[in-house]
Design a protein that fits this description.
Helix content: 25-40%
Radius of gyration: 27 Å
Shape: elongated
Number of helices: 8
Strand content: 15-25%
Strand order of the largest sheet: 3-2-1-5-8
CATH architecture of the largest domain: Sandwich
Structural class: alpha+beta
Number of domains: 2
Distance between the termini: 43 Å
Order of helices and strands: HHHEEEEEEEEEEHHHEEHH
Oligomer: single chain
CATH superfamily of the largest domain: Cupredoxins -  blue copper proteins
Number of strands: 12
Length: 347
């Protein structure tokens, strides 16, 4: 069934508003989930905040002047009780007034354009220090892939980066790609939104000033589960980041107690979509599962990560994320329990 353009627009707007309401409700209980651009924690986001204040200040001044003039004209020239109904004296032109309302808007536009251009240049042409971390970000329907090419790490939906120190800058430069349709990478407290376009490589950089969790999402409608294409950025101290890198590089020891679950994994269609170190699984359609249980969420934020939720997700992903590309595996309860027991060891 084809949707009309109007219905599609309404659906997009409703999905976006619902996602914003969900984030806002969560942020009320957890400050780490705030997504306001007015509480930046990274150099690019800080520049955007100051530009926003300038734009809002100028716009507010224009609003105040125009509203004030309308109110003044409404009160000053309202119809009086003793009005004789005659037409007032007509003014057919005033060179000073016409010059003012032509020149002033031009000056305002020039100031805003130059200010925006300065911030864009400052962010997009920022020099890349040798200490910078490189990450290749690939948008999929509907999850994020994070590849650290120099570190040999591939993970999903949760980006881990170091914070910069006073003595050594440690920014993270992100190369943005898309595997299918147009997406948009946006973590409001760290940087502005940047489109993720098929067959094009865009670039974005972040430089968190403190440790913590920063949440974001895809900001471009990309299909039925756009609203659940969430992402999380964890900013660590350099020492904690190195510890995380070591954990991600660690080879998972084979556990004889979950060997049956590994066999279930390797003989099902899981291996066609997912990659898992030290197994025959080398798929590229789904997230890398090598350290699955080190992540906080499943399904790009659809639900929290736990063995119970993992079992429910494998059994029927569509109940949490309708339209998700992962099919229900239709495993027996015994095979499902064994598979979950194996995946739960991937830390």
């Amino acid at each position: 069934m084809k949707h009309t353009a109007r219905a599609h627009s309404i659906f997009c707007a409703a999905t976006f508003l619902l996602s914003l309401l969900g984030v806002s409700a969560a942020a009320a209980n957890d400050p780490s989930l705030q997504t306001s651009i007015f509480s930046p924690e990274s150099a690019p986001a800080d520049s955007i905040k100051h530009l926003s204040f300038l734009v809002l200040g100028i716009s507010g001044a224009i609003f105040a002047v125009v509203t004030g003039m309308i109110l003044y004209a409404t009160v000053r020239f309202r119809q009086r009780v003793n009005d004789d109904g005659k037409e007032p004296a007509q003014i057919y032109g005033s060179n000073p007034v016409e010059a003012a309302w032509t020149i002033v808007p031009i000056l305002i536009v020039v100031v805003l354009a130059l200010s925006a251009a300065r911030v864009i240049q400052q962010i997009q042409n920022a020099p890349k220090p040798e200490s910078a971390l490189d990450v290749v970000v690939t948008g999929h329907q509907w999850w994020w892939e994070f590849n650290y090419p120099k570190l040999g790490i591939v993970t999903a939906n949760e980006l881990h980066v170091p914070v910069s120190g006073l003595q050594k800058r440690l920014p993270t430069f992100l190369q943005l790609r898309s595997a299918d349709v147009a997406h948009s990478f946006w973590v409001p407290r760290l940087a502005g939104k940047t489109d993720v376009i098929p067959n094009r490589h865009n670039q974005l950089w972040i430089e968190p000033q403190r440790t913590g969790l920063f949440v974001g999402q895809c900001a471009e409608y990309c299909g039925t589960q756009h609203a659940k294409m969430l992402l999380r950025v964890y900013a660590h101290t350099p020492e904690d980041f190195e510890r995380w890198v070591g954990e991600q590089k660690a080879v998972q020891a084979e556990d004889p107690q979950v060997a049956a679950g590994r066999m279930v994994f390797e003989r099902t269609a899981c291996i066609n979509c997912h990659t898992l170190d030290n197994t025959i699984a080398d798929g590229r359609f789904g997230p890398n599962l090598s350290h699955l249980m080190s992540r906080e969420t499943l399904g790009a934020g659809a639900l929290s990560n736990s063995p119970t939720n993992l079992r429910a997700w494998i059994k029927n992903p569509a109940q949490f994320k309708p339209g998700v590309r992962m099919p229900a595996m239709n495993l027996s309860d015994s095979d499902l329990d064994q598979l979950v027991a194996f995946l739960a060891t991937l830390k």
